[in-house]
Write a structure and sequence with these properties.
Number of strands: 4
Strand order of the largest sheet: 1-2-3-4
Number of helices: 4
Shape: globular
Largest sheet: 4 strands, parallel
Distance between the termini: 52 Å
Length: about 140
């Protein structure tokens, strides 16, 4: 099997563009909000009321690289089932490399049975999660 260098180069460019896009969203939408919070030494990443639905991977990347955080608030972020699936995927994918989450707040989003199935998988697999809010 031969590899086409053009396809490999395009894949690398696409990956780089995706990472740059995530970083740009973090810089413009998440970091300023966190810098405005009074207590930055808290163990909470509060993204409540920020529409992160189109950039859920950026939010999870930011959370993952701020490993002192144990509580993630994604309340009223316009998240749907597929976004909950991305959150669960990121938590499970990185649960063994110091990416620990003890509390997850997904309240006031658009979560149906499908999203609850993702969360059930999380609860069965991840033993670090102590509190889950889906009210």
């Amino acid at each position: 099997m031969k590899f086409d260098p053009k396809l490999i180069a395009q894949a690398d460019i696409d990956s780089l563009e995706r990472h740059l896009s995530l970083n740009q969203f973090i810089k413009n939408n998440i970091e300023p909000y966190q810098n405005d919070m009074r207590d930055r030494n808290t163990n909470t990443l509060n993204l409540a009321n920020i529409d992160i639905s189109a950039n859920i991977d950026a939010a999870m990347k930011y959370y993952r690289y701020n490993d002192k955080k144990a509580k993630l608030i994604l309340s009223n972020c316009k998240l749907k089932d597929e976004h909950v699936g991305r959150v669960v995927h990121n938590i499970l994918k990185h649960q063994y490399d110091s990416f620990e989450i003890e509390e997850l707040d997904l309240s006031d989003n658009y979560i149906t049975i499908e999203g609850c199935e993702y969360l059930a998988t999380l609860l069965m697999t991840n033993k670090k999660l102590l509190k889950l809010d889906v009210s």
